[in-house]
Amino acid sequence: MALKYEILKKVGKSRLGKLHTRHGVVDTPAFMPVGTCGTVKAMMPESVAATGAQILLGNTYHLMLRPGADLVEKMGGLHKFMNWDKPILTDSGGFQVMSLSGLRKLTEEGVTFKSHVDGKKFFLTPEESMKIQHKLDSNITMCLDECTPFPATYEEAKKSMEMSMRWAKRSKEAFVDRDGYGLFGIQQGSVFEDLRQQSADALREIGFDGYAIGGLAVGEGQEEMFKALDYAPGMLPEDKPRYLMGVGRPDDIVGAVLRGVDMFDCVMPTRSGRTAQAFTKYGALNIRNARHKEDDRPLEEGCDCPLCVNYTRAYIHHLQKCNEVLAVMLLTWHNIRYYQRLMQGLRNALANDTLDEYVSEFYKNQAKGDIPEL
Amino acid sequence: MALKYEILKKVGKSRLGKLHTRHGVVDTPAFMPVGTCGTVKAMMPESVAATGAQILLGNTYHLMLRPGADLVEKMGGLHKFMNWDKPILTDSGGFQVMSLSGLRKLTEEGVTFKSHVDGKKFFLTPEESMKIQHKLDSNITMCLDECTPFPATYEEAKKSMEMSMRWAKRSKEAFVDRDGYGLFGIQQGSVFEDLRQQSADALREIGFDGYAIGGLAVGEGQEEMFKALDYAPGMLPEDKPRYLMGVGRPDDIVGAVLRGVDMFDCVMPTRSGRTAQAFTKYGALNIRNARHKEDDRPLEEGCDCPLCVNYTRAYIHHLQKCNEVLAVMLLTWHNIRYYQRLMQGLRNALANDTLDEYVSEFYKNQAKGDIPEL
């Protein structure tokens, strides 16, 4: 087995686990900060590690364009290139080809596209995606698939899912198996339960080190997403990690963990750090709001990140108003730390049989909107 | 005496010293990174301290506009507000009023100006500048003066200098003396030796904790500046620190230390960090240059900053091409560390009687342009 996954405990549908890779262990449920171009934006990698993050996501699409997989390989792989010695998961590039590149043409063989950076033409196939992710030295390689757009008719969703399953097979055949490295399949099928089942069956037949749930969080809304998550994770093999791609807000993650998901990634904490939005136990707030101008309190009481320990809201508000880089650095750090505290809280609650209390406290606090005495 | 200055050793005109403030000691010759708006751009304050910097410069003009001196005072002063517990020097605001603000009107009483941020009208006098710097809790307060533009006729330079000396007297009278805090006078007189002497005499008559050399590095060029520095520092009291404002490039600093200057500030290392320029022992280079694309060497061999220890030139080049914030963070850190290593090198050479060797090695290396084997 290329990647070892231990499930330590189950509580309802939720699972407490440990994923072992060549570059270290990932405790699940886990949140992966996104390091699109070989850097988690505005963070030193040692700071990312200090937040408790044990694994990063890298984007194959961005890295194949700049600096190119060959250069990363020549520099000793992505871990060494970006100075991150813990596990890395890379996506397949498919999603960004569809959302970012120009002049796409999708065929059974693969997808032709033009770089959004310089217009250069590329041809991405399952085999090529495996080759690139291998050069990047990714611990968890994702199959190339088509992320079915939402909304899709049943016929569209079926056709798209079936091609993705053929691509999953080609991905598996092209993947070079190594100890401590693994390949994840991606379930598609939009919001159609029987298509999700067909997709899960096809993936299980091929056999993977882990299984992602794709094609959600693409505009269907939390209610629809949770409906799909009521059945989708349970269709996937019980003994392998389940990864919900591109999700999400804190309450999306809590809801998904309750439905049996083990892994998450999202640009939310990092992107929000660049738009002055902060996640706290009392909900999200925007530090540009004038009410913070003379507030000498920390952003979030009890948070142990540098922003909350060393600075007032008034200071961060001031930095934001002056467009200072330090505001982005500190807010990104806080947000990633918030997400890691959330995951640690869920893991502790699973370990201590206090998941119900943890989750009800989570929702109660989130509803408050800000520190109660405000 | 409000600020104690010890001169430990003199070598030619150069001096090795220690300036004692309420917030700690500054070893001289010293370089002060600039923290314009209450942050050294793109740096955590603990990282600034890790470079070896012992004192920062804050800009009164920027801070009086945003967030305002009253708010900073309410938050416990600038040290606490920005989480920097070492010494801070603030300029008087005069220079930025002239270079940044709109609709200025200069009279004997003071200067009226409109904020470059929101057009709000302000009236800055020597008394008001002292009051603001006191509220900021600055360890070293600078007198309000007029930085005589270059070029100036003898008559213009004389008139401007004489008003600055009257303002210096008013600054001294308005300054609230406290232990561990001090006030610096500023010598003007453009490039006219007798005006520099008159200015020095006027300042000495008033009496200050230190003396700045103002009105240089304003377009006259290094040759003219060094000509003025051949005589200007020696006109100032021997037992007090001498501070050359707004200077400069590494070779400006070395030349000025040889001419008896003890303190420096400049935006050069921080601003360059935002434009991909790096200072190294072999001169300055721009990391955007295509020749760095596949270079797996560190930016500067032997440098102990995180950029040089953990990354290749290829990686920093990649970050720059992708406009990643981390490039700015790492280059700024490196540049400040380079400046601090330069100052430490000068201090060590003064202590060890190897100043001649140090300086000739410095010029020899700078002339190489990059790591020799390139």
Low-confidence stretches of chain A: none
The third-level CATH topology of the largest domain in chain A is: TIM Barrel
CATH superfamily of the largest domain in chain A: Queuine tRNA-ribosyltransferase-like
* CATH C-level label of the largest domain in chain A: Alpha Beta
CATH architecture of the largest domain in chain A: Alpha-Beta Barrel
Estimate the global geometry of chain A from the Cα principal axes.
globular
Give the integer mean of the pLDDT values of chain A.
Answer: 96
Output the radius of gyration of chain A.
20 Å
Oligomer: homodimer
What are the key terms here?
homodimer; alpha/beta; TIM Barrel; 2 domains; 9-stranded parallel β-sheet; 15 helices; 17 strands
Polypeptide structure, described:
2 copies of one chain form a homodimer. Chain A is α/β, with parallel strands linked by helices and 374 residues long. The first copy, chain A, folds into 2 domains: 4-266, Alpha-Beta Barrel (TIM Barrel); 275-366, no CATH class. Helix content of chain A is 43%, strand content 19%. Chain A contains 15 helices and 17 strands. In chain A, strands 4-15-14-13-12-11-7-6-5 form a 9-stranded parallel sheet. In chain A, strands 1-2-3 form a 3-stranded antiparallel sheet. In chain A, strands 8-9-10 form a 3-stranded antiparallel sheet. Chain A is globular and about 60 Å long. The mean pLDDT of chain A is 96. Chain A binds chain B through residues 37-39, 41-44, 62, 66-67, 71, 74-75, 81-83, 293-294, 296, 306, 310-312, 314-315, 317-319, 321-322, 324-326, 328-329, and chain B through 37-39, 41-44, 62, 66-67, 71, 74-75, 81-83, 293-294, 296, 306, 310-312, 314-315, 317-319, 321-322, 324-326, 328-329.
